[in-house]
Model the fold of this input.
Amino acid sequence: MIGYLDLPSGLSGDMMLGCLVDAGWPVQALRDTIAGLGLDAKEWSIDAASVMKGPLRATLVRVEAAEGHHHRHLKHIVAIINGAQLSDSIKQKAIAVFTRLAHAEAKVHGTTPEKIHFHEVGAVDAIIDIVGSVAGLEALGVTQLFASAPPLGSGWAQTAHGKIPLPAPATLELLAAVGAPSRPAPGEGEWLTPTGAALLVELATFQQPHMNVQRIATGAGSRDCDWPNVARLWLGEVASSPVELVQLETNIDDMNPQLYESVCAALLAAGARDVWLTPVQMKKGRPGVVLSVLAPAAQQAAMIDLMLRQTTTLGVRAFAVLHRGEAEREMRQLDTPHGQVRVKLKQLDGQLIGATPEYDDCLKLAEQSGQPLKRVYDDAFAAAQRLLDGTIGTPPSI
Done:
């Protein structure tokens, strides 16, 4: 199963837990998971309730921690997680999330991940949010997680370090570390917390997948605002992509023109449907060439790798070809005064509408016979036209 986090109002740890509980993970299972961390049961509590956020129903998970702002180093959090009764995959992913947080906080405060003191994100509620989120995804069978671009708002927040601008510096560092996309928030305030950002950058891919949606889970944020403060988790299975073909392009102005023939031949041999060259005028008045390739989407990576290795280009553009109308094609062999020539037949709705001799066959016969290529080709074209007009029998296909 795959999951897609639709984030109209951002994400925090409790919103993530709300999505998971709303998706069917029992809140008692969440409590049992946290109990396995060995934390003092008097220091925390977890409750879930169905609430309305504007016109939308959602699940609000409340995590209460009596500890307050407790300072911990990364090694202390790692020890808590490693000592818990959790699967190895949950431990590894949860530690990876906290490690990302440590690196982001360290960069913000000009120190090292080992020396950083976790404040808000090191408190019991953050440990519950992160470990619970990782465990909940595993319990629901989500093997791959995707996410939309999170909204980032402006303003100020009061923290253990004092007043800081929003988005929180650690949130920005987390997103920048992976080149994550973002978009403007619907209003001022913090809509993506450092905990939420760490979960996203470590566990999710920022794109909307092709999927067959089976159910939707909605997690609520604690604040009420002029719009539904919710995150939605779409759950389903991978759907086959409607993109069957891609068009790849690159501009080149510094390559020996003699090399284009071999590059085109290599691309066609690797499975490209078509390859073509377009002359263009590039910067500084330089003449250049656009190398274009039409290829199956499944071979996009291989084609790009070939283009990067066998040309001087530094980058290749890729465009999805959502539809390509095609005529049926078939190769036939025709007798001509100079020998046999393959002819490409073009059919539409079962009707023969075109017949073209293969140039390479005509060239070979011209070289063998000593006849001009034009005469050989014209005779082959005349034979093809007779086939098209139905004045000669239909030879076997090859």
Summary: Residues 393-398 have pLDDT under 50 and may be disordered. The domain at 328-389 is CATH 3.10.20.300 (Ubiquitin-like (UB roll)). The two ends are 45 Å apart (CA to CA).
